[in-house]
Amino acid sequence: MTTDTVANGAKGVSVGLPGAPQAPQKQTSDFRLTLIRLKFWLKSPSPYLNILGLAGFLLFWYLTTEVLKLPLFEKLPGPTATLDEWLSHDPMFGISFFTLEYYQHIGISIWRVFQAFALATMLGVPIGLFMGWKKTFKDYTFPLLEVLRPIPMLAWVPLSILMWPGREASIVFLTFLGSFFATVLNTLLGVESIDECYFRAAASLGASEKQIFSKVIVPGALPFIFTGLQISMGYAWFSLVAGEMLAGEFGLGYLIWNSYTLVQYPVIIIAMITLGVIGSLSSLIIRLVGDKLMQWKVREAAQ
């Protein structure tokens, strides 16, 4: 059976014969929208300004550390020394693209962040949704959340070591805390941002509380949830480094601190750049998943 498809601009509206499968058309439409967004992004000045900003930072780093050798930067490794160590087959300090130990530290850190972020998402999103949905539940939980949230992550280190028998669990716990609060608060903000008229409309149409929760609250809060998850991922990496510096034996945070104590300064820069790249890729993955689940926002951006 053939299908006649009429595309309505960037909205991806298709008209087919009765009973014809529409899933492949939807996938094609989603792919078209992604290409349209990419096309407009490449035509905008944004990607070129991004490249210019990175190039400007590298130039500043090179001039201050290797050319001018300013007082505040003279002890820091420059981009040339860092890149030579990073790309060396026989690195002076044992960490480069070609050493297994480098990837072991990366893998351990990623696994810790994944555990903490998954746990923070599974707990934080439902708690935030229920706090925004049920005022009584918010009255019970919000004051406690606000008391615990401002406590610095380093203050939790002694308690985490006492509560959890091994170092691994304490590091994951510290990483979880940093991610959890950001997830809960952004989810709560998402629910509270939903216009009250949607709740009244759903109630007037006879929707049950379960239907209001699944059809109004969850979809309405999704943009804020995914924004919160991106922030949460950044907090997770930040908290992970603090935990690994103080209680870890492996990982990128441990590598930074250990390299400082051993005066291996290029390795510090290598680990810091690696953290930045992996953290950015993690946020990018969250954005892509969010775009997949919120196609209406993708269509708005394409239009």
Please, could you describe this protein's structure?
- The model is unreliable at 1-23 (pLDDT under 50).
- The chain has helices at 23-43, 46-67, 79-86, 100-133, 135-148, 157-163, 167-192, 196-204, 209-247, 252-261, 265-293, 295-302.
- Helices cover 75% and strands 0% of the residues.
- By secondary structure, the protein is mostly helical.
- It has two domains: 36-78, no CATH class; 95-302, Orthogonal Bundle (MetI-like fold), CATH 1.10.3720.10.
- α1 (23-43) crosses α12 and α10 (252-261) packs antiparallel against α11.
- It has twelve helices and no strands.
Write the layout of secondary structure elements.
Elements: H1 23-43, H2 46-67, H3 79-86, H4 100-133, H5 135-148, H6 157-163, H7 167-192, H8 196-204, H9 209-247, H10 252-261, H11 265-293, H12 295-302
Helix pairs in contact: 1-12, 3-11, 4-5, 4-7, 4-9, 4-10, 6-7, 7-9, 9-10, 9-11, 10-11
Major β-sheet profile: none
Query: What is the number of independent domains?
Result: 2
Assembly state: single chain
* Number of separate helices: 12
- Write the H/E string, N to C: HHHHHHHHHHHH
Beta-strand level of the residues, as a percent range? under 5%
Mean pLDDT across all residues, rounded? 84
| Spatial gap, N to C terminus | 32 Å
Radius of gyration based on Cα positions: 24 Å
**Which stretches are low in confidence, meaning pLDDT under 50 for 5 or more residues running?**
1-23
CATH topology label of the largest domain: MetI-like fold
From the coordinates shown, what is the CATH architecture of the largest domain?
Orthogonal Bundle
Per the principal axes of the C-alpha atoms, what is the gross shape?
globular
Helix content: over 70%
In total, the number of strands is 0
CATH superfamily of the largest domain: MetI-like
Structural class: mainly alpha
CATH class of the largest domain: Mainly Alpha
